[in-house]
Amino acid sequence: MAAIQKTDSVPSTDTARTDTTSVSDSKSQLDAILNYEPKGAQIIVREGLILAGGVVAILLQVANPGVGAGVYDHSNFVYRPVERLRTTMTYIYCISFGTPAEKAAIVNMVHRAHSTIKGPNYSADDPKLQLWVAATLYAVGIDLYERVFGCFSNKVAERIYQDCSVLATALGVPPEMWPADRSAFWAYWDAQIESFELTDESKSIANDLFYSKRAPIWIRAGLPIIRLLTAEWLPDRLREGYGLKTSKRRQRFYTVFMGLTKAIYPHLPRFVREFPKYYYMRDMRKRMKDVA
Questions:
Q1: FRET partner for 282 with CA separation of 20 to 30 A, picked from 19, 90, 121, 192?
Q2: Domain segments of the chain as ranges
Q3: Distance, CA of 39 to CA of 162 (rounded, Å)
Q4: Can you give the pLDDT at residue 11?
Q5: Per residue in 37-94, pLDDT tens?
Q6: CA 26 to mean position of chain CA atoms
Q7: Helix axes 154-163, 127-149, angle to 10 degrees
Q8: DSSP conformation letters of 248-272
């Protein structure tokens, strides 16, 4: 299976974004985020399978030197992997499914956290870094969904892409920075991947993720399969940079694993597939109630 890459037959379009941007033109950007329901993005975000791409998304994010430096200096994947997962998934689910009040709470939380993450050569409030983080969430999500369910039509895929712009604008990215269409997005994506030179900080984060001895035992038990999946899903250039290996034997195992996933996962009851969404949204609402 190929690593994350652009979908074939992506049409180029000069038409302006008709969903979140049109709302942003008539209201403040924050009001647009709080009141917009990204029904296209919900199609992929609601599926629990996207959690399998969590490590891939993190390694793609920290491949950007600015993001990598910020995460290395201010985060600790070794001691708090579950908390990191909860924060990321709560953000994604809340922006996609939350009420205006819930979205406001998560946006404020993110902005408060980012305001303290600064260094000599980076700031978590830098829109370029935030754009890349949001881009990885979209790219990994759409890639995993289509690997299991099959490709969307161009029309539906474009609607999903436009809706996913809210993951960027909620982080503070100006709407006009989100590439205008999927063709523009994958051109941006390819250019970013080719420009990255993995730093020692990025490689250290990867090592912490893959070989942590302090993570809960249920996470450590799944690390071998996570390493295998991540190696197959990362772009070749980054896989090699992170020192991940692939082989014919590993690829055969991966093919069997994905074959079983495609045969079983789509037929699971909806409430099973969407359990992570319900879990993290319920957790967030409980925390909001406790704070109130």
A1: 19
A2: 20-291
A3: 10
A4: 41
A5: 999 999 999 999 999 999 999 999 999 999 998 888 877 665 566 677 788 899 999 9
A6: 28
A7: 140
A8: HHHHHHHHHHHHHHHHHGGGS-HHH
Residue type, 248: K
Distance CA(62)–CA(276), nearest Å, equals 24
Q: What residue type is assigned to position 39 of the chain?
A: K
Residue 261 is encoded by which pair of tokens?
A: 């996933």
Mean pLDDT score, 232-246: 94
* Cα four-point dihedral sign 287, 87, 171, 4: negative
Q: Reduce the DSSP state of residue 118 to 3 states and report it.
A: strand
Residue 50 and residue 141 in contact, taking contact as beta carbons nearer than 8 Å: yes
Tokens of 144: 């995993």
What pLDDT does 76 receive? 67
C-alpha span between 2 and 278 (Å, rounded): 31
Higher pLDDT residue, 122 or 244? 244
Distance of alpha carbon 193 from alpha carbon 190, whole angstroms: 5
Q: In terms of Cα–Cα distance, which of 97, 224, 256 is closest to 163?
A: 97
The type of residue at 141 is: G
CA angle 220, 225, 230 (to 5 degrees): 105
Q: Percentage of residues in the chain with pLDDT exceeding 70?
A: 88
pTM for the predicted model, two decimal places: 0.88
